[in-house]
Specification:
This protein has 237 residues and is mainly alpha-helical. It starts with a helix and ends with a helix. 65% of the residues lie in helices and 0% in strands. The protein has three domains: 78 residues; 71 residues, no CATH class; 76 residues, no CATH class. It contains 18 helices and no strands.
Length: 237
C-alpha cells in the first residue's frame, strides 16, 4: 500500500502511471489521495468513477461529485447517491461546476416534500435560491422564520411572497416584524397591498410609504376600510 500523503505529491505522469497500475486494487484512502492530488486529470477521475468497487465508497462518490476534474456526466450520475445534507452543502459551493449544481437542485426539489420539519428548517437556513423558492410557502412558520435568516435570500423573492394570495397571515406578520427585511420599501408596499396581511401589520407600514403610493392604495377597491381610515389620518387633505 502506497502512503496516501505520498500519492498526493505525485507528478502528473507518476500519478497517471500509479492509477493505471493499481486501479483494480486501490484502497479508499488511496483513491481519495489520488483525487486530492493537484495533478489529477479528468481521465483519472473517470477511471475512478467507472470502478464500481471504488465508487461504492461514499467518500469517493462525494469527492468525485465535488471535483471540477470529474467528467460532468459521471458527476451528475453520482449525485443520486449522495445524502441530503451533503447535497445541500454542494448546491451552494461555487467550486462545484454549474451543470452539477443544477442537477443537485433538481434532485433537492424532488426530495423536499419528503423531509421532516427539522430537516426543512435546517435546509431553509442555508439553501440556495432555487430551494428557497420551494420552501417559501411551507405551511410551517418555523421554516419561513429560518428562511428569513438565509444569507442567500433575495428581496425580490420576498416581494413575490408578500404579494401572493398563497402567503399565510402568519408569514406576512413575521415578515412585517423582521428586523432586516421589513425595512425594504418594495416589501412594505407589498405587505400593505396584500389583503391577507394582518391589519395591524399592514397599518404599521403606512407611515413609511410615499404620499403617491398612499393615495394609490387608498383608491384601490381591495383596500380595507380600516386601512383607508389609517391613510386618511396620515393624509387628511
Amino acid at each position: 500500500m502506497t502512503v496516501p500523503r505520498t500519492i498526493k505529491t505525485f507528478s502528473r505522469d507518476a500519478l497517471a502511471a500509479f492509477v493505471a497500475d493499481n486501479i483494480a486494487h486501490l484502497f479508499e484512502e488511496e483513491a481519495l489521495a489520488v483525487l486530492e492530488n493537484r495533478n489529477v486529470t479528468p481521465q483519472i477521475c473517470q477511471q475512478i468513477a467507472r470502478s464500481a468497487r471504488l465508487a461504492a465508497f461514499y467518500a469517493v462518490r462525494l469527492r468525485l461529485v465535488a471535483h471540477r476534474q470529474t467528467p460532468q456526466a459521471h458527476a451528475v450520475k453520482l449525485v443520486h447517491y449522495i445524502y441530503w445534507f451533503d447535497l445541500l452543502r454542494l448546491s451552494t459551493d461555487v467550486k462545484v461546476p454549474p451543470t452539477v449544481r443544477r442537477a443537485i437542485d433538481q434532485l433537492l426539489l424532488t426530495k423536499v416534500n419528503k423531509l421532516t420539519l427539522g430537516e426543512r428548517v435546517a435546509a431553509a437556513r442555508r439553501c440556495n435560491g432555487t430551494l428557497a423558492k420551494a420552501l417559501m410557502f411551507d405551511p410551517e412558520p418555523a421554516v419561513f422564520e429560518a428562511l428569513l435568516k438565509n444569507a442567500r435570500l433575495r428581496e425580490e423573492d420576498l416581494v413575490v411572497l408578500a404579494s401572493s394570495p398563497r402567503a399565510t397571515p402568519e408569514q406576512l406578520r413575521v415578515l412585517a416584524a423582521d428586523g432586516k427585511w421589513s425595512y425594504r420599501y418594495a416589501i412594505r408596499k407589498a405587505l400593505v397591498l396584500n389583503p391577507s396581511t394582518p391589519r395591524a401589520a399592514a397599518a404599521s407600514q403606512l407611515r413609511h410609504l410615499r404620499r403617491a403610493d398612499l393615495r394609490e392604495i387608498h383608491g384601490n377597491p381591495s383596500t380595507s376600510t380600516y386601512l383607508r381610515r389609517c391613510i386618511e389620518r396620515l393624509l387628511p387633505a
